[in-house]
Amino acid sequence: MKNVPEIKLKLKPAYEEHRHELNAAIQSVLDGGQYILGEEVNAFETEFSRFIGVSQGIGVASGTDALVLSLKACGIKHGDEVITVPFTSVATAIVIQSCGAKPFFIDIDDSCTIDINKLETFLKRNISKKTKAILPVHLYGYAVDMEAITSLAKQYGLWVIEDACQAHGALFNKRRVGSWGDIAAFSFYPTKNLGAFGDAGMVVTNDAQLSEKIRALRQYGWKTKNISESMGINSRMDDIQAAVLRVKLKYLDQDNQRRIKLAEVYHQGLEDSPVIRPSIFADLRHIYHQYAIRSSDRDGLKEFLAKHGIVTQILYPLPIHLQPAYRGKFDSFGGLETSEKTAREILSLPIYPQMGKEEAQIVIETINHWFPKE
Ligand SMILES: Cc1ncc(COP(=O)(O)O)c(C=O)c1O
Is the pLDDT of residue 342 over 70? Predict the structure, then answer.
């Protein structure tokens, strides 16, 4: 095969597409002189929470902080357990630990998200007094079955804290993720479907009391300036990020549609290829933050694509329970084989709104010229 131009996740085209609008938004913050928790942050909180379909949005410094503050506001503390999956960003487990609680792992299924059947069986047979919350992760932009999760949570008296850090705009039954649980966390890390020019995050909820707690917790526990009524942290959103995100939010649905179209191209083009395509293509629950395929010779494929200038990513090479820092530290319901197998086989192909169909065709053609090792 001939060499092809380098194809990888690119952040710059997103900037180039809206250069004038973004520059003007940033300039206006610089001119205004209000850099933290100012008018841009207020406006973005209103606009993003409206977009998700909830009444409250609280801008914070990262997705990690959005999760920590959500857990704290729900009262998760030392001795508690929070149900989640091991096949996710390590941040998902770190945040539970940083409240003094422990993650309790349930395996994933083919969708790379929590196996609802296993969750249900665990709750029926083994739930303990320590279990306080479910933290579903909408991984790769795929919406978890939130009807099932919220109904189980109601039945067993558990909080639902959605990790929507990879799923801005994804829908489950025509309702955006982030609007289903008691509370939800978003990350605006630059590579996300809605990405800032640095770190930023948001908590969204319909619960005014949780929102009030988080507004205090994100700034030293203040309700009034310099009076700490709770033990908070410093996790404030800055106005330059909010201004950038307000511009990009206007294009988010359109950008997600462009990703979905590219995923369609991949899905058709890879039909007879040697790789396994995401098994969940048919429903409308995906906004393709990642288009992740599988192969038992994943490393061979990655190397082959790299030789042809196509940069891919492995998200995630190790599930949390096998990470050196966490091995043997957390409990799970039965084995976690699907998470382990997925981590060995998964590979994210390039996908971003400004990518052309022609580029996706090059990726497809290259994969179709590859022979896996048996
Ligand atoms: C699933 C998931 N949870 C949590 C986070 C943490 O977000 P942040 O990097 O903004 O702290 C991320 C982002 O990397 C993520 O992908």
Answer: yes
